[in-house]
Amino acid sequence: MKLLEYEAKEIFKTFGIAVPSTGGVIRDANDIDAALKKAGDGPWVLKAQVLAGGRGKGGGVKLAKTEAEAREIAEKMVGMQLVTHQTDAKGLKVEEVLVDQASDIAREIYFSVVMDRKSGMPTIIASAEGGIEIEVLAHEKPEVILKMPVDPDRGLEPYQGRRLAFDLNIPQKQIGAFVKMASRLVQVFLKLDASLVEVNPLILTPEDELIALDGKMVTDDNALFRQKELAARRDPEISELEREAKKTGLSYIGLDGNIGCMVNGAGLAMGTMDTVSLAGGSPANFLDVGGGANEEQVTKALKIILRDSKVKAVLVNIFGGIMRCDTIANGVIAAAKAVDLKLPLIVRLEGTNVKEGKALLQDSGIKMEQADSLWEAAQKAVAAAGESK
Ligand code: ADP
Ligand code: MG
């Protein structure tokens, strides 16, 4: 899960990491005055909160010297489509704008903690040449990038922090402050089960103050069970439908096609989507109802699929393993009745008690086509979706 800049910086603050004085985020340009007041004296910086880098170059980070200027920028920025080199041509809609006090910048440093797959260790990546993107730096001047692995149990050792400080040319009197900040950023990474914590730029002011000016965090979804606060957060990258599916324990990802797929098991779901594509169709979603695909789950899944107005046919491809095919058939029948299904339904069952399952479907009186193989099911679904257009 990716966090927005202001969310990352709020977390930094609770770990004692210096961030700019802030007026918080506004979702309505009319709230700008209160935010400016809260941030303190000008000038201020208005920053589009979208999950993409390169906002500065894309026009998503603007300096405002006066209140009037801030108001003008806010009016343009709230609701705009921001295009950066990390977005597609359409860009991302700016729902929130962060209002920070502007800092005087003497130097911009790059600092991040990532998981290095090769060594299996959290690793600090840093460079005295911050401000520009690390990918660009890695390409043009790989020699100015420092790497330091960190023991996940012990965190950053003070000697490691000092080594980094020297290599980054941190002023003598600020070495202690830098070591503290670096080890706190490592703690953020470890405590929040992050896969990335990035501060670009980490600045030195003309007074040699160290401030995390920007913040980016990615956390591990698989650790959300022990990160209650993160789990409760609204993920801007997830659609309304995906959010609802998640609540009911379904793995659902909306796609662009018109064949709604209901499958158990992620591997089978991927295989089904591939087969639909191979048959010349296009899946409307990825949906894994899980191993225990009972009547309730199947009904919920069907309801979610049908809320997508692009869906023109529904393909059910379920393997009866833990759950027997007759149980699944009853689930499909009950679900089709519960939602009063009007769209073409294609069902392919395989596995334990498949005969009984098929007979139940046959005798249910519900309009559907059955298929004996996935290939047959996919072809039938593609044909049905074509006709019901
Ligand atoms: P992005 O990485 O998406 O481009 P940043 O937050 O890094 O966004 O901002 C881009 C640049 O804007 C920074 O490198 C810095 O020079 C400037 N900037 C950002 N925030 C501030 C601030 N609070 N005060 C002064 N300059 C800022
Ligand atoms: Mg940045």
Write up what this structure looks like.
There is one protein chain. The chain is an alpha+beta fold. Helices cover 37% and strands 24% of the residues. It has 14 helices and 19 strands. It has helices spanning 5-14, 32-39, 55-58, 67-77, 134-140, 158-167, 175-191, 228-231, 240-247, 266-278, 295-306, 325-339, 354-363, 374-387; strands spanning 2-3, 22-26, 44-48, 61-64, 81-82, 92-93, 97-101, 107-116, 121-127, 145-149, 194-204, 210-212, 216-219, 251-254, 259-263, 285-288, 313-320, 345-351, 369-370. Strands 1, 8, 9, 10, 11, 12 and 13 form a seven-stranded antiparallel sheet that branches. The protein has a four-stranded antiparallel sheet with strand order 2-7-3-4. The chain has a four-stranded parallel sheet with strand order 15-17-18-19, with helices on both faces. α6 (158-167) crosses α7, α11 packs across α12 (325-339) and α12 packs parallel to α13 (354-363). The two termini are 36 Å apart. The relative contact order is 0.09. The model has no long low-confidence stretch (mean pLDDT 93). Bound molecules: adenosine-5'-diphosphate (ADP) and magnesium ion. Residues 200, 214 line the site of magnesium ion (MG).
